[in-house]
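Continuing the series of single-chain predictions for the mutant panel. This is the parent chain; the variants come on the following pages.
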Amino acid sequence: MQILITGNMGYVGPGVVSQLRKTYPEATLIGYDMAYFASCLTNSLVLPESKLDKQLFGDVRNISAEVLQGIDAVVHLAAISNDPMGTRYEDITMDVNYRSSVKIAQLAKEAGVKNFVFASSCSMYGAAEDSAKTEDSTLNPLTAYARSKVATEKELMPLAGHGFTITCLRFATACGMSERLRLDLVLNDFVAGAVATGKINILSDGTPWRPLIHVKDMARAIEWAVTREPSNGGDFLAVNTGANQWNYQVNELAEAVADVIPGTVVTVNKNAAPDKRSYRVNFDLYKKLAPDHQPQYSLKEAIMELRDGLIEMEFKDGDFRNSLLMRLKVLTSLQEHGKMNEQLEWEHQTNKMKSKQSELQTA
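Parent structure:
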């Protein structure tokens, strides 16, 4: 079996690669990534990509059909991956997250790929405080990131069938330690604040709901989806991926961190504008379809793992929200250093293309 993993050099990718290598030791694992965050290693004794058989470097906006040849399953993680980046780069978010995703799925089907796994998101439910949302609930995407996921799912649906199985995993908000840790995620942010300063500053009024899932539990879900049969959920499946007990209000998450890290002071921004991104999610369908791949981490375990990982890193940066552990800051830094243009393309690749065009014009 050959598995292509796009976006494997991000926050989720290292855990996915480890899980697939463990489960399918004889499989050929191939990574495909732009490498924006390749240098953002945290507590990694070895390069995560060393578990792959091959690492390809490329832009999903320009992926070639050749990359999909001989592939049995595609795990499509590549995306502009959070709301701040989506706000800054809204048009690029639609290109990368939506149009490129559909194109890759089309190429995959033409190449004879059997399973296509799309990393979708529960954020598409948006403002939804009245009840826990099921897969049949009305979608209310409030951000470019969420809109890109909705648009992609809509166009993936008609591609499914005739030997091409599509699974859209609507993940809860990610959390937990990774070999490429991000701190621009609610639980990770809170633990970082507690470790570095003994304080958690909640930017909202603390009442919004968030469902969470550990990155390693995301990897378990992806392992399931890679070989999912149409008899278990249909040719096309969009499924909320997480656990019912992981629905929390933001202030509950902060208090849970304070319980694990004694002495932590929690402050709430009582003057904050209402955060409309508040939703609870029902994960019963995922439990029914994937009983052997249910989330295993508890909230306390996730907090303890993050605490221990940050301490091992000797993490003491109280200004971490302006550090390179925030994905938007990484992209901004690459642009400021002239490595990347406003379209999030590598400058050396852009210059190479310009040189080729100049040669053709001269000829």
